[in-house]
Amino acid sequence: MALTPIRRVVTGNDERGRSKVVWDGPSPGTHETNFKGRGHTDFWVWRETPPPLDGTEDAGTWHDEFPGPPGGGHLRVVHWLAKTDESPPNEPYKEPEQHGRTWDRGGGNHYNRSYMHKTESVDYGIMLSGERTIELDDCKLVMKPGDIVVQVGAWHLWDSSKMGCMMAFDMISAKFFDGPAGTAQGNHPVVRPKPDRKLPAGVKPARRIVTIDREAGKSSLVGDGPSPDVRTDPARPGFALQRMWVVDGAPAKIVFETLHLPHTLEPPVRGSVLNVVTIPPDAAWKGKVGASEVAAYFKSVGSPGASTYSPQAPHPYMQKTRTLDFCIVLEGEVVLVLDTQEVPLKAGEFVVQRGTNHAWSNRSSKPAAVAIASHGAK
């Protein structure tokens, strides 16, 4: 059983500066282990921050390392198996060992159970399929498709024994300022949802798990619940942008919380922002939205200059930002609208957007959800 192929669309610009598709097909960066069906698929690798938006090379095929190049990062999907008769026995736990920017304490078998480990990185982990248990030193949590964990340099172990899984990881280079301990810095209070908050009809809450090491050598749960920061658009009933995390510089910081920062649609120049966007059917608002409604939305998310609205544009909400965007369709069907073409997408498919003019259109009768990790780029 080979690794499951995953569609990846990469955008760019033509000679006239119009957005287009550069690559479209199964991501070629597949790496299978000695266990059939176990391994990882690379989608994009960057070696410097901010990452470049130009270039003719497919960075998904570049040499990669774990947890990503120093000063850069990567987007990949890991393929893990359920426990079977072929599963090796779990190795015993051990004293921490360092391997470059990774530390491990054993306890796994690399088939259905990872080692207890930590990496000098901040990771956006997004469940795509199956089920997976994350084990920390103080708890265990079961993750299902659509759930997101923000690993802030914490010790953790993954267990997919029940049914196997595929999970995406956007891993961003960080810095442990207290050596290999990598404990939390600062005391920012965790942002919680307001008790009386109601989501728009059709919007599912985006689960956000945050982990960190409060003390040396011991991981702990910071929070587990729905995104506490939801932005809506009155002109589009059923639209919601749920903020998950912000990285405000390079290397990424090991902190308890970042949603007190203002960045919403666009990240800091050397940072990143992760959002889950629910896109309602276009039929709910089509023909009722014009320049003023579009301008009001982009102003509300702090990016008035992102809009490229024009009465002649292929979609009212066309936008362009100086960002490298990793977009994963979590649920439903959506169309990526570019200047020169349209790309229908379904759940489980990826888009690597390189600073290109675009919009998201939902021509179906049900909401669609897209996780978008935007990185400041050059």
Report on the architecture of this protein.
By secondary structure, the protein is mostly beta strands. The longest helix has 10 residues, at 291-300. The protein has one domain (7-376). 3% of the residues lie in helices and 42% in strands. The two termini are 40 Å apart.
Tell me briefly what this model is.
With 378 residues, the chain is an all-beta fold. Helix content is 3%, strand content 42%.
Radius of gyration, whole Å: 20 Å
Which class of secondary structure composition applies to the elements? mainly beta
Give the tally of β-strands: 25
User: What level of helicity do the residues show?
Assistant: under 10%
How many angstroms does the end-to-end distance come to?
40 Å
Q: Largest sheet at a glance? A: 8 strands, mixed
Per DSSP, what share of the residues sits in E-state strands of 2 or more residues? 35-45%
How many helix segments? 1
Give the SSE order as H and E letters. EEEEEEEEEEEEEEEEEEEHEEEEEE
Instruction: Give the count of structural domains.
Output: 1
| Global mean pLDDT | 96
Gross morphology: globular
Low-confidence stretches: none
Widest sheet: strand ordering: 2-1-23-20-25-19-18-17
